[in-house]
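queue> pop job 88
queue> type: inverse folding (structure -> sequence)
queue> payload:
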């Protein structure tokens, strides 16, 4: 991923009034036979909100990802607004590396809204950490993926937006190794005025949407959020990459929320001592997951740089262990003809 100039955004932000009109304008009826432009191949993912399917765009033949609202939710204006809002946010963020390009927003023949994006033909970070991806990714590679996501967030935060649902399942990798942050349905603006004026936000304000396994305490409690809320979530994912297990393991939603609000989690190096996690990784995790948002790092670009440093340190440790293993497996001396010997250093 290319680094961004911290003072330059790849798009122009609309005014607050224009933004309000853009995000919350009613979604019109679909064009005739609009839903027939995409032929479903298989379901990629599904949840209580909607279904994501791999589809073929009939007219041009390319494969795309189609996220469609469940039909039983068609009468729920809030859910319709959220899906339309997600598509419009993607459109606004066009040009940022790590954000999926939006191809379409429409309704099918039943009137169900759907959005169409690029299809990512690779695993997500959850599958990678769990060893369920076709290709194995070592921990330094996983940390590089997380650093890419942090760089994407750095630009998004400059635009005044917080993703608010950072988790391994929402970090995807394509076959060329490019990282993408997906699922922007829970995103909020840093400006309270923009949030207050948004129909979708106002209707969901008192309802937590996200995963308590990764969400910051202030997000769970519906308090004031900032870029540091996403930074907390990056720290939660970092813990899982380092140790192989989630930071929050509450079992139920209620228990997960309680553990997240309580804090006091075991350091990664103590949780998985066999992994020989470096101190710099422990320190970054502790900084990111401070309960008080003011005590966390304030810049996501800083997080990206530190993640790459940690990846490099773990890579160096691994190479050193490999070289030591080779050296220790080499005979101290190889017998030559007669009484001659060639000594091999094992230091």
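queue> result:
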């Amino acid at each position: 991923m290319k680094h961004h100039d911290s003072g330059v955004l790849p798009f122009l932000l609309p005014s607050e009034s224009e933004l309000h009109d853009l995000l919350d304008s009613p979604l019109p009826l679909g064009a005739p036979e609009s839903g027939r432009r995409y032929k479903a191949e298989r379901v990629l993912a599904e949840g209580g909100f909607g279904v994501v399917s791999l589809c073929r765009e009939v007219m041009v033949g390319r494969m795309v990802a189609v996220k469609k609202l469940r039909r039983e939710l068609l009468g729920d204006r809030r859910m319709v607004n959220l899906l339309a809002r997600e598509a419009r946010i993607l459109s606004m963020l066009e040009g940022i590396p790590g954000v999926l390009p939006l191809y379409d927003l429409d309704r099918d023949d039943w009137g169900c809204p759907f959005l169409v994006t690029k299809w990512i033909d690779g695993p997500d970070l959850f599958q990678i950490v769990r060893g369920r991806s076709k290709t194995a990714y070592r921990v330094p590679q996983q940390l590089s993926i997380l650093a890419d996501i942090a760089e994407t967030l750095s630009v998004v935060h400059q635009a005044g937006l917080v993703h608010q649902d950072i988790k391994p399942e929402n970090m995807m990798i394509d076959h060329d190794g490019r990282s993408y942050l997906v699922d922007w349905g829970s995103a909020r603006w840093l400006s309270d005025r923009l949030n207050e004026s948004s129909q979708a936000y106002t209707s969901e304000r008192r309802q937590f949407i996200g995963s308590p396994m990764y969400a910051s305490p202030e997000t769970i409690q519906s308090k004031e959020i900032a870029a540091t809320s996403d930074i907390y979530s990056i720290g939660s994912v970092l813990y899982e990459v380092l140790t192989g297990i989630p930071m929050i393991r509450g079992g139920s939603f209620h228990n997960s929320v309680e553990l997240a609000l309580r804090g006091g989690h075991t350091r990664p190096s103590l949780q998985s001592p066999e992994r020989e996690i470096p101190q710099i990784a422990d320190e970054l995790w502790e900084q990111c997951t401070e309960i008080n948002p003011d005590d966390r790092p304030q810049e996501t670009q800083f997080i990206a740089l530190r993640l790459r440093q940690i990846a490099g340190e773990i890579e160096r440790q691994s190479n050193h262990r490999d070289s030591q293993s080779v050296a220790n497996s080499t005979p101290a001396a190889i017998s030559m003809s007669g009484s001659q010997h060639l000594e091999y250093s094992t230091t």
